[in-house]
Amino acid sequence: MHFSFSMPLTNGFQLGLLVIAIILLNIFMIYLPPKDNRLCLDTTVYLSVMYLYGIEITLQILLISTILYYIVQHSTNWITDGTEWWKHIVNFGMYNWIIIGAYYAFIYTGGEIGLFGLNYAHAYIISTAVYYIVNIFIVTSYFAMANDTNMFSIAKSIAEDSFFHYLATLILSYILLILMGTHPIFGLLIFMIINVLVSIAFKNYFNMYEQAKKDKTYREQILDSLPVGIITSDDTLNEFFLNSTAKELLQIEEKDVKPHLYKDQEFWKVIYSRDLCHNKNVKHNDRLFLLSQSELKNKKEQLIGRIIHFIDMTEIEEMQRKINQTEKLALLGEMSAGAAHEIRNPLTVISGFLTLMKQSFTKENNERYQLPLLLKELERINTIVEDMLTVARPASPQLMRMSIKEILNELPKNLLLNDSMHVAIQLDDTKLLVDPKQMKQVLYNLIRNSVEAMDGLGRLSIYSVKKEQTYEIYIKDSGTGMDEATVKTVFNPFFTSKETGTGLGLTIVQRIIDDHHGKIEVFETSENGTTFLITLPLQD
Where are the alpha helices (DSSP H) in 109-120? Predict the structure, then answer.
């Protein structure tokens, strides 16, 4: 069964029109996103002509259109994607094999050249399938030889990418076959006009897509260049966008945001709640963020999502802490500078007279009037004054190259020698630019604190870790540890947990380490002990 269309014989005018149609279809291709993805419908003409008029006329228009398209392409400047002559020859050869394969598949499966007939449906399907398979085989062979790549993987990729394009092309070839069977010239003109209009429309949409893509890329580049973490939430699509700073600060990708929303963390709780906020301090792991969450609206003022922006306040918070510490030290310095001499003068007089009295008194009178205890307390007051002056007016470090191991060996032997205490020292011989006298005071104060925290009983470990740019010194004891409040205030002036302490030892230690451009901190503490960490820079 077939449609009762009358098919006129092909003449020169119709042949020329077919050639022009192929050239126009090559020029007015249908552009599809993404870039360099185009659909050329010249295949529809070759298949339609092959089914209507046979292989001879099909190969004739293939040869003529190939030559004319090359001439047009290289003689005009309105076709920008010019192709080299040898590529035209390769394309011509490929189309020959494809058309021949499709033609004989059509004939051998019972198809007859002429008008479209439903009783030849199986032949049309097999023929177009052969057209598709031979095309993929030739293209795959070309790319496999050019790139030395596995043919199967190339064929699979090409088949997946081009299947729907070929399907659309083959369906359109049947439509053109019916149109040309009804009226060869008018049907071809209608098909060409529709194709040109669709090509222009798709090209405009393609240009709009490319422009939108450029705008999106431009906006993303702007957001990625900002030193602020930005998260946008699309409520319609339930999707999230993160700029590069947000990804770096949070250490996640966009696909990982949704699972994190349900985690019991303060940062994600705020985002999950969708509560609007402005400059809210929020913790995330060991970082402190200043976070704001606001509505995201489109041009019509319709709510489409939220925008969250945050900055890392961890270093600023640490800097503020140091500023507060410096202000306290400055205040202490002012007090010390004004009071030190006034205190020392009467102390010297009192100490001198008490010393004379001790020398003049008998042993019984010394004990009666507690002169040894008075002299001891005066010495303690003098030590406090000395510590205050050290904090207020620290001497500039006199730097020289020495290892911490060498400095530790200069400490008093009785500090680390105790039968009831086990001391483990693992320090290398790395040379650092330090002030030996000041660093000796640092180690002495920290070790003495550790020994007192253990009551002279336990284990003391001193070891080092050399990194790429820093040198870390760990002083670990097995004492009772510290609570959270003590950890926060342990370096504050006059803070002490000991009955006889001045509360300036760790303040002096911190001041010395700061002057060495280093850092001291309570690395860890628990009921099993405390570890102090000193970090010093490595210098060439």
Answer: none
Task: Report CA dihedral (242, 247, 251, 257) to the nearest 10 degrees.
Answer: 0
Residue whose entry in the numeric block shows the structure tokens 């002057």: 515
507/443 Cα distance (integer angstroms): 13
Question: How would you classify the pairing of strands 421-426 and 458-466?
Answer: parallel
If pLDDT is split at 50, 70 and 90, which confidence band does 535 have? very high
With 0.70 as the threshold, say if the pTM is over it. Answer: no
Residue 434 φ then ψ, to 5°: -140, 165
Query: Poorest-confidence range of 16-30, 107-121, 326-340, 498-512?
Result: 326-340
User: How distant, in Å, are the alpha carbons of 61, 109, 135 from that of 116?
Assistant: 21, 15, 24
Contact (Cβ atoms closer than 8 angstroms) between residue 398 and residue 435: yes
**Which amino acid is present at 179?**
L
Q: Is the dihedral of CA 364, 365, 366, 367 positive or negative?
A: positive
Residue 264, classed as helix, strand or coil, is coil
Separation of alpha carbons 514 and 529, rounded Å: 25
> What is the layout of strands, in order, in the sheet containing 277-284?
239-242, 229-234, 303-312, 287-297, 277-284
Q: DSSP E strands: which ranges in 28-95? A: 30-32, 37-39
Average predicted confidence (pLDDT) for the chain:
78
Burial class of residue 509, CB neighbours in 10 A (0-12, 13-18, 19+): buried
**Tokens 């046979």 appear where?**
54
Q: Are 508 and 391 in contact (CB under 8 A)?
A: yes
Q: What is the pLDDT of residues 432-476, one digit of tens each?
A: 999 888 888 888 888 888 888 888 788 889 999 998 889 999 999
Whether the predicted pLDDT of 88 surpasses 70: no
Mean pLDDT within 356-366: 75
DSSP secondary structure string for all residues of 376-414: HHHHHHHHHHHHHHHHHSPPPP--EEE-HHHHHHTS-HH
The CA radius of gyration of the chain, in Å to the nearest whole number, is 44
List, in order, residues 6 or more apart from 371 with CB less than 8 Å away.
354, 357, 358, 361, 365
Q: Evaluate whether 446 touches 475 at the Cβ level (below 8 Å).
A: yes
Angle in degrees, CA 447, 453, 456, rounded to 5 = 75
